[in-house]
Amino acid sequence: MQPPKRVLCIMDMAGAGRSSLAVVLPVLAACGVQGCPLPTALFSTHTGGFGTVEVQDTTEYAEKALAHYQQQQIHFDAIYTGYLQSDAQFALAQHAQKQYPGALLVADPAMGDHGKRYSKITPEMVGSMQKLCQTANLITPNYTETALLLNLEPDNTPPAPEEIQRRLGLLSAPGCAVVATSVPLVGGGLAVAGCGPNGSGQYTLPVQLVPQNYPGTGDLFTAALVGLTLQGVPTPQAAAAAGEFAEAAAQATYVAGGETRHGVWFEAQLYRLTSYVNNL
Length: 280
Known about the structure:
- By secondary structure, this protein is α/β, with parallel strands linked by helices.
- The protein is 40% helix and 21% strand.
- It is built from nine helices and eleven strands.
- The strands form two sheets. Strands 3-2-1-4-5-8-9-10-11 form a nine-stranded mixed beta sheet, sandwiched between helices. A two-stranded antiparallel ribbon has the order 6-7.
């Protein structure tokens, strides 16, 4: 038996509400991958619907922890970055990438959604995220973030297929794979659209929607995508399986009447990922 692959997860930690590290770690574990948290900030909850959130910046701790990992020669097979909110945190992510040159570099460029940039994301931070994504092997923007990464004005207008292909080609030009989520389709619905480096092998995966928006579903999807990729699953197939897992969790939550702000009840669906990996 081989030791599990190890992923350094550089992002915030929300104690309640099912998002960020609280979602990422169990999903990676269900894929048979060890997630190692390097929290950049602690949030009492995510920022959608819980009033004033308590926040503790942990960048200084994360910098010292990264140095400790190097001192102890702890190896990571992947570096997975999420929401970053300061120059110091972007520098931390870049340092980690350089410290582990053989690792798979995954960037989830959390900057906005639903056609709008997050209020705390400045134009300067968008520029920093663009640079980080240009060094990654795999990026997972939602449709709003594809616009931000390309210096376009984001909106939710369904694009023509040619526009999706154009964006994928531009985003993958540095040599990375792209998996874009929440792509609005002409005629209604959403899709995942992806490609390999330099626009190769483009594909589109329709999403089965429920009539409700839940926070943290992007974290569920990307964590599953990362975990399955590290198990050797090709990116298009990993994206399809990750999508089916996230869809099943959203459907179960909606049918059960789960409170929106607490995210999707993914816990009972983790077996899907474990079964998928066991059947490889």
